């Protein structure tokens, strides 16, 4: 059985959107882990949920997610509306213990 192509547009139903986000986030984290193991690559992944919750993966001890997030955050914040930027800053602060 062949699966149809998924249209790339926003999912309007909030419940469906959250379920899809969770499934795709888990798949993305799994792929990051597989890439690090199979290719012996150092992989860092940072994902923010629509509500600003931080999810992270780092394949090596040299990569410290809290420092990676703090490094990337200023670049991301420039492109986001101030309300979203505030949520991201708050989440990073909570994760690093500096709130």
TrEMBL record:
Picking any one GO biological process from the record gives: positive regulation of transcription by RNA polymerase II
Source organism's superkingdom?
Answer: Eukaryota
GO cellular component terms, alphabetically, are:
nucleus
Every copy of the MADS-box domain together lies at 1-61
Going by the UniProt record, its keywords in alphabetical order are: DNA-binding, Nucleus, Transcription, Transcription regulation
Chief subcellular location? nucleus
InterPro entries, A to Z: MADS-box/MEF2_TF (IPR050142), MEF2-like_N (IPR033896), TF_MADSbox (IPR002100), TF_MADSbox_sf (IPR036879)
| KW Nucleus (keyword) present | yes
Tell me one GO molecular function of this protein.
protein dimerization activity
Enumerate the subcellular locations listed in this protein's record, separating them with semicolons: Nucleus
Please give the Pfam families that the UniProt record associates with this protein: SRF-TF
Which CDD domains does its entry note? MADS_MEF2_like
Membrane-spanning segments? none
- Show the Gene3D superfamilies listed in the entry: Transcription factor, MADS-box
Q: What is this protein called?
A: MADS-box domain-containing protein
The lineage is: Eukaryota, Viridiplantae, Streptophyta, Embryophyta, Tracheophyta
